[in-house]
# Entry
Amino acid sequence: MGLRGPGARALRRKPGEPPAAPQEPQKHPWDEPGLSRAERVIRFVESLPVTSGALAGTRFRLRPFQRKMIGRVYKTTRAGRRQVRTAVWSMARKNGKTDLAARLALCHIAGPEAEPRGEVYSAANDRFQAGRTFSEICAIITRTPWLAARVSIRRHSKELEDIEEAGGTGTVYAALSADVGTKHGLSPSFVVYDEYGQAEKPDLYDVLDSAMGARAEPLMMVISTQAARDEAPLSQLIDYGLRVQRGEVDDPSFHLTLFTAPPEADPWERATWKLANPALGDFRSLEDVQRMALQAQRMPSKAASFRNLILNQRVDTTAQFLSAAVWKPCGGAVEVEHLKGRRCYGGLDLSQSRDLTALVLVFEDDDESYDVLPFFWLPADDLREREDTDRVPYVRWAEEGFLQTSPGRTIDPKAVALKIAELHGQYDIEALAYDRWRIEDLRRELDAIGCDVVLVPHGQGFKDMSPSIDVLERLIFEAKIRHGGHPVLTMCASNAKTASDPAGNRKLDKQKSTGRIDGLVAMTMAVGRAASGATARSVYEGDDRPDGLLVI
# Structure
C-alpha cells in the first residue's frame, strides 16, 4: 500500500530523478542545550498552534497548572530517566484535558519524547470520544508545516505515521475504543485514555497497560472527570494515587493530579468551583458555570450532574428526575372531549417479557401547554406476582381501567396496534415516536389492519434523549403539562432516574431507576417529537434500519 496523507508528498519525485540530497535536521526550540526533559516537552507543546476559537492561529500557551502537571510527570532521575509510568489527571469538564492530551500525544509521535518506531494510542470508551483526540491531532498537524511534511494521516482508519523517509521516527498512532475489536498484539510507548471515568470495565486499560512492558520508558496517561462510584475503574486509580500522596504506598512510578471540591464545601460558591476548575475565568467560562449552578439549584435532577461534572466530585449522576413537588402541580384534569382537532403526537415504549408497554399521546394547546393521554399494558399471567414484586396495585389499576392486560406472558402486538389505529382515527396522530425494540412486530400488525400512522424512530441514548428530556423538564417546571394524576404514569415518573455523559447530556436510565419507568420514557419521546414538530416517513416506507457499525 502506498503512503497517503501530507507526509507522502515529501517522498514524491519524477521517474528517473535521483533522490534528493539529505537535508540537515531541522532545529527546533526544544533542541536547545541545557533544557530538562520536562522543559523540552513544554517547549514542544507551546510551539504548536491553537486550532479553534478566538485564538486560532496563535501559539498555544500553557497555563501554570498545566506546566506544573507536565513538570511532575516528566521529571527525571539524575540518570535522565523518567520515573512516572502511570499519570492520572482528573479535573472538571472543559478545562482543556483533551486538547493538552492531543499535544502530548504528538510529542511522543514526532516531538522530543518520540522513540524510534514507537506506538502511540489514544483510547476511549466509544468511537466518538476516541475520535476527538485524533481530530485535534490532525488539526494541529495540518497547521504545522514541518509536521505536515512528514506525518501521514489516514483519516478513514484514524491512524498516523511519522514517516522515516521524510525525517520522522517511524512511530505509528491509532485511535482505539473499547467497543471495537481486539487490542492484543500492541506494544505501546505512550497511551492517553480520555474520560476513563465513564468506563464500566477496565478491560481496555488493562490490555494497554500490560502491553507496555517491552518499552524502556512507557507512559500511560489517564485524563478524566471523576467517576460516579467507588467501584469504578477510575475511582480505584484515584484512590491508589491518594494513598501514594499520603505516603501509605511507596510508588514513584504513579502520579495523580486531582482537582476536586471537597464534599463539605459550599457548591454554589465561586471559590468552590475554582478548586475543580483550574482554568475558571480563563478558557473555562465562568458565565457557563454560573448558569449551570443556577439550574442545579433550581432543578434537583441537575444537582448531581453539577457536582460530578463541574465540581469533579464522586457523585452518582443517576439522579432522581422528578420530585413529587413538581409533578403533582401538573395533575390537572384532562378534558378528553376537548382533545379532538388539536395537534397530537405520541411516544411508544414496547415491552420485553415483564415490562410495561406504554403508549402516551400529548395534545398541544393554544398556550403551548400539553394534555397527556397515557395507555399501559401488562401480561395477565402472574399479574399478582408482578404486583408483589413491584409493590404497586396492578390488579386494582387493571380493574379501574388504568392498565390493560393481555393473555399470556407477553403483550400481543396486535392489541397495541388496534389501540393505535383506534386513537389515530380519533385524533389524527401527526407522528408516533418509538423505541426500536420489537417494532417490526408492530409494523406488521399495523400494516395488516391498514393503519397509516407516521412512525418516527427515537433513540434511547444521550444524543436523542437529552433534548427531549430538556423539553419535558421545562414543561413540567413551568406547569405546562396536564397528566390528570394517572396513577401508572405517576408511578413511572416517581421511579425515573437520569444518567449523564461527560458532556452533560442526559438520558432516562432504566437499569438504575427504582422501578418501572416505561410510561415516562414514552412521554419524553412524545413531547420531544411534539417540540420538533417534524413529520417523518410513513409506516409503509419501511426503511428504518439500525445504525451501521463503524469500526475504528
Q: What stands out?
A: The domain at 324-532 is CATH 3.30.420.240 (Nucleotidyltransferase; domain 5).
